[in-house]
Every structure is written in structure tokens, then in C-alpha cells.
Amino acid sequence: MADSTSFVDFQQVSLAYDDSGNAIEDISLSIGEGEFVAFVGPSGCGKSTFMKLCTGLHAPTGGSVKVDGVEVGGPLKICGMAFQSANLLPWRTTLDNVLLPLEIVKPYRSQFRQRRAEFVGWARDLLRTVGLEGYEDQYPWQLSGGMQQRASICRALIHRPRLLMLDEPFGALDAFTREELWCVLRDLWEAQRFTVVLVTHDLREAAFLADTVYVMSRRPGRIIERREIDLPRPRDLAVTYEKPFIDMVQELRNLIGDIRSA
Ligand SMILES: Nc1ncnc2c1ncn2[C@@H]1O[C@H](COP(=O)(O)OP(=O)(O)OP(=O)(O)O)[C@@H](O)[C@H]1O
């Protein structure tokens, strides 16, 4: 379970990109260390904007964003990120793609040459955990979409971030691969208990993976519902065919339907 103290803390946060008004407005919430939260809402409601604020890629125009007790003032080093597109570098092998953050992020970058063998060990361990053992020397174009996304999750985790930001990471995958990767992510999170912020359009994904689901309104995005997912852990895919899960997803779907038609 999540730590009860606040790790990510938003107080009355707003962001206006330009003079067209607020993209998100008056967001106050608190995420505990080790908590898995998901954000859902209609397109354009500000889910990705929330992530940019959380990671320090954008500063709020109102309110305060703190991570680990400190006001966020620039890009955070304790973050790992993965997106809908795996964005692996085509000229690097899978292993070298996964190692990339260690070449860039402090404090690892200054130690990279010296500790390379150890870091390669970390990368191989992660790749094994997500089922990519044997593919370390393949190039991204030799991997399927699902395999590329597995590698991208390894790359997001290689520098042992405390906060993992996932922006629709499984959105481009077929349903079977997507569910397989839910389980990969679930197992990594169960083992390492980093804090996760997942943005998704898939309500089943949100309900299966998260401790807490936040539903956002249309622009300007506000939090209109906070839903705790009280299904016991560890969760197996079988849970997604049971009534409590189906009812919960239906409730979320109705909420978003109401927002869209409002
Ligand atoms: N760099 C930017 N400059 C100006 N406006 C922006 C910028 N990025 C996003 N917006 C606007 O802010 C609002 C929120 O966008 P955001 O990408 O956060 O929504 P989202 O919920 O992630 O959307 P989707 O579900 O479609 O991915 C949208 O109206 C969008 O047009």
C-alpha cells in the first residue's frame, strides 16, 4: 500500500499556456510515495499537462507543485517516463537504448565509463524481467511494437526513479499485448514500489493497475472525481471479468460520458 505521507503535492494548481485561458485549473491533490494513480478524462482535458507540471517540464501559472517536499523548479531527475510511442533510437541496440538514461542523468553520467559493466547488469536484469532476454543486441526495428514498449519501460526505470510517469504507454498496442504489459508493469511495481502516474484513455487499464483513479473534467481540466480502487492485490487479469470490476469501470465510463455530453 502507499505511504500515507504526501510525495507529490498539488495545491490549487492552474496552468495557462497562452492567453486562451487555463488548460488546467484549481487542481489540489496528494499522491503518497509508492502509490499508483491513474488519470482519465476526455481528450484535451489536461492529463498530459498534469504530467508536465509534475515532472517540472512546465511551471504552473498559479498554485504550488511539490515533489518530495520541495517546490518543483525544473525537470526532475527522480523521474522516469514512457509514452505511447516507444521512441527507441534506431541506431542503438535494445541494451544500449535501455542504458541511455545512465549516460545522461546525474549522478550516473559521470560514473558511466567506470561502472559500465555494472550498469549493463542492471539493464540485462530489467530486460529479463520484462521478457526480453535474448533481444539485448537486436535493434528496435527488429522488435515488435509490444517488445519495443517493454524496452521503453526498462529505459524509464534503469536509473531507479522514484516517480514513473506513463503517458498512454500501451495505447498503440493490440488488446492482448496491452494486457500482457499491464501484468509486466504490475509485477515491476509490486517488486520496486516506485510511485506511478499513469495517463490513459483505457478505463479498464486504470482500474486494473491503479490504487486511485482521478477523473478530469473538460478544459479547463479540474479533478471532478477521486476513486479509490479497493480490489485486493496482487491483481490477476481474471479480476477484470468479475462483477465488482465491471461495475467500477461502468461507473467511470458513465462519469466520462456525462462530461462529454455536458
Ligand atoms: N504547448 C502547448 N501550448 C498551448 N496549448 C497547449 C499546449 N499543450 C497543450 N495545450 C492545450 O492544453 C489543453 C490540455 O492539453 P493536454 O495535452 O494536457 O490534454 P490531454 O488530456 O493529455 O489530451 P489527450 O487525451 O487528447 O492526449 C488542450 O486544450 C491543448 O490544446
Structure in words:
The chain has 262 residues and is α/β, with parallel strands linked by helices. The protein has 2 domains: 172 residues, 3-Layer(aba) Sandwich (Rossmann fold), CATH 3.40.50.300; 78 residues, no CATH class. 36% of the residues lie in helices and 22% in strands. The protein contains 7 helices and 10 strands. It has a 6-stranded mixed β-sheet, with helices on both faces. A 4-stranded antiparallel β-sheet has the order 2-1-4-5, covered by helices on one side. α2 packs across α3. The chain is globular and about 55 Å long. The two termini are 36 Å apart. The chain binds adenosine-5'-triphosphate. The site of adenosine-5'-triphosphate has 12 residues, from α1.
Summarize the structure.
GO terms for molecular function: ATP binding; ATP hydrolysis activity. The chain has 262 residues and is of the alpha/beta class.
The overall pLDDT, averaged over residues, is 93
CATH topology of the largest domain: Rossmann fold
Q: Which term fits the overall shape?
A: globular
Distance between the termini: 36 Å
Mind telling me which CATH architecture of the largest domain this is? Answer: 3-Layer(aba) Sandwich
How does the helix and strand content classify structurally? alpha/beta
